[in-house]
Amino acid sequence: MQQHLPGWPERVKLMQENWIGKSEGVRFAFPHEIRGADGALIGDGRLYVFTTRADTIMGVTFCAVAPEHPLALHAAASNPAVTAFLEECKAGGTTEAELATQDKKGVPTGLMVEHPLTHEKIPVWVGNYVLMSYGDGAVMGVPGHDERDFAFAKKYGIDILQVVHVDGEPHFSYDHWQEWYADKTRGVTVNSDLYSGLTYTQAVDAVAKALSAKGLGEKKTTGACATGASAASATGARRSRSSTAMTVVRCPYPRRICRSCCRKT
Fold it and tell me: Is residue 12 part of a domain?
């Protein structure tokens, strides 16, 4: 492809080469009753996240928000530990390139949101790896099937739940990460109540339908790019946890103008 883009910088050519089209996921909300100083529900009482792994929603054991997220700022107003952590995050840098070289750290806010399907209380953490510029500035934590979440949970003693099983693989161990934990091509949901025994696609469809019926979520398609941190920063893109897609604000330039119809392609 790059040979067809004469005159464009090499960085742009590489970004265009790595453009891989669309990524489908689910954007949904964790309801809550957290009110700000003015007495109003923060975020209208909903903490939104986006994920391509809605099949693992029954394995959520925590949510993480960016240091700049309204819930993080709210918690900092009455929690010195959160205040100190936010200051640490500012000092350490907030760009994706800077975060890539830092240890993944977090602090509990003491706040709780509600799981949209089980209604269980889910603790909210502030994570230095969550970017406010990505989606809604929050992610769901599924330690059993995301390597970064697994390491984060082990570090801070957060529960780990297995909700996907792959036949022929070793026994699920809570002590160390195994690559098959994140396998969505061969996995079947387990320990997921009504959503057990489903393939990845079946589970995502069922979960999206249930969330939609509750008015809490829907399927969403975003642009996806296969590049790393440098290209992401260059295009206004941000990558969240490995189980979600990298959201790209726009397709990497260049775009061409078709002379016959005056349309941008």
Answer: no
